[in-house]
Amino acid sequence: MKTILAVDDSGSLRQMLSFSLKAAGYGVIEAIDGEDGLNKAKQQTVDLVLTDQNMPGMDGLSLIKALRAMKNYQSVPILMLTTESGDDIKAMGRAAGANGWLVKPFDPARLTEVVKKLIG
Amino acid sequence: MGMLSRESTSDLMETQVMRLLSGVSTHGDQHLAEVERDLVQMDVLLNEAIKKLCTSFMAIHHAIDLQQETLKSMLSTGKPAPEQAARLEMLREEIGQHVGAAVTGLQFQDMTSQLIGRMVQHLAGLRDVFGELGTNGTAGLPESGSEEMLVMLNRISDRVGARCSELAGAVRSTVNQRHMESGDIELF
Description:
The complex is a heterodimer. Chain A is an alpha/beta fold. Chain A has helices at about 10-25, 35-45, 60-70, 85-95, 110-120, and strands spanning about 5, 25-30, 50, 80, 100-105. Chain A has a five-stranded parallel β-sheet, with helices on both faces. Chain A is globular and about 30 Å long. Chain B is an all-alpha fold. Chain B is about 80% helix and about 0% strand. Chain B has helices at about 5-75, 80-105, 110-135, 145-170, and one strand spanning about 185. In chain B, helix 1 (about 5-75) packs antiparallel against helix 2 (about 80-105) and helix 1 packs antiparallel against helix 3.
């Protein structure tokens, strides 16, 4: 089973992500912010990372940069899932190493379609 | 400040008081306009989310009723007819779609909590502005001469302005959504 790391400070959003991805047959590890996400990513190399941008402490962009600096996360797909949709911040996400940008709220069918496209 | 004539001191005093009042009014208005904007946006998001959730809930309830009827009918005949199996499959897909719509609607809390956080920061900013007036205003009115009063008014105006500039830079809007429809997806 492919495993996805879902990083978001909103409990309800993590719950919805977990529900949608598990229903599509993926394993899900939840993290409450960037720092928690980084620690969990170190404990187990996951197949895909989905992260929010605005979180207390370490934000999504910093998490992506930290993950891309790790040898085992250089080619793991990372998607940003955020309320932000400005071109500037998207460009920053791309430069940091994100593979895609999803604007909230997400539709479970469209989300799993994208995930399937990236990791099968 | 050097010696000033009574008239010029009075003029300067008037200018400083006007500057202070204008600063408080402008900054207060800016903060309240932001709060008002966020409240309107939050109201739209909450209304749409609740409508979406009510519709999904009723649709799921209806589809489950139909599913139960089909199951009952299948159990009474003992053997499922092909059209019953097809109907069950159709209902399963229908329920899945309504659950998906409900999942989208249930994400309202993430957005509204960010908007509430921003409003709280703006209200705190207003409190700071009024706090500056309270702390440095009437409680510290100089007893001697108007020149000290001028210095004090100038200082209060500067501090009110500084507080507002600090806040304006710190409170960036992170929620652009005006509806509860699912957002765009872009793969790089």
